[in-house]
Fold this protein.
Amino acid sequence: MTESNRTEWDRDYSSIGLIANPFFTTRRREGESVGVGLAIQAAANSLVAALEVSAQSGSARPIWIEKSRLIPDSYHLAAVAQAEKRLINDEVLGIVHGYIQLYMLKLGRIRSALQIFSERLAMRGFDKTLAAWVEEILAAPDAEIDGFDAAEPFLAEFGDAFHADPVAALADVFGECVTERDLKAMEIADVRTVVQSQDIEDEVDDTPEDEGEQGLPPMVDSAEATGREAALIDYIVEYTRVHLSRVIGRAIRVYGIRGTAALASEFTITRAPRKTFKSLCVLATKRFNRVALIYDGFTNWHTVPEDLRDRFVTSLTELRLAMKHSGNLVFIAATDEIVEVEEQFRSDNAIVWSFPSLAVLEADPDALDTEVIRAWIESAALEPGVAEKLLPELQDSFSKANGSLEAFVPLAIAAIDEAAGV
């Protein structure tokens, strides 16, 4: 693989305690120096590393990132974009996330998280997520539910095909994983998204997810199909309704008829958004190692009425409980920007995005500073003491670079790769 088409997630650096090679970035804006690009990459690495450490330890502790008010917000946004790129594309890392900015709360304090996460889960290769769930269904069949008798004659043959190639077997039943199977249907507005209220304040554990949907126009034609595919779909849908979520069961049927765009929308049609979000987290962790909700964009927090701020903090607690040990809330905020949230969710080991290397690079964009190099290694570290172990591996690179960061970077990339055996 050449450096031009290499990505920061195609090699495993965990053997030397790193989430990534700290001297490699696929992102370089026009006119941006190597050092600035690596400073942004370092911030992104620190977020991804924190999520990976939480996944390894099973910690559900919120992750707090403090933004410096002295640094233009473009640097913070660039770091978020770089982290998201890794989270979306790295299947080995296995983290599925939602990125929620303050203005999105107009959708509802819970529904904003539900909608953003639903879109991400649906569009993140849902055939693979469905395969992880169907594997569990096949491992623990339920002969008591509706649809089992009709599906039973096909289960052995389907199981053999599924274990040989799960994605292909599901495509044979549901169709290929595509955004939309019926382009004309995209033009029809789904009135259910309009008539449902925002957050149900009195939602309790036994609040039905689909309460109140009767009488609303169906999103898809519910006419019964026949044959092997229909029997298998009916069984998978009913199993999901009984053992996971009525909403998710309904959504899986819609996936077979329409595709992932309608699936994402269907996940959000619920009278119990908290319960549905919790079930989506359970579904997600059948495939992924971690769930994350990343909250950002709090510049106008001071304009939010105090009572709404308090309700938002309460909703965050509910979301954290819904994720249990499967995920983390992540907050990206400036110092004292969201005091009410900070009091409840900030931990002692907050990550600080102050970009200290920018001061060195501003004076000399090609400066090779040992402390900057140390800081970039630490940002990608999965455990304490990694920089001390790796700096000796870079001594030859320092010598050959002769004080030039531009010359040092390719040498350091190769040295870190060699140390990791990749």
In short: The first helix runs from residue 34 to 57. Strands lie at 63-67, 95-101, 290-296, 327-334, 351-353. The chain has two domains: 14-94+290-420, 123-284. The longest strand covers residues 327-334.
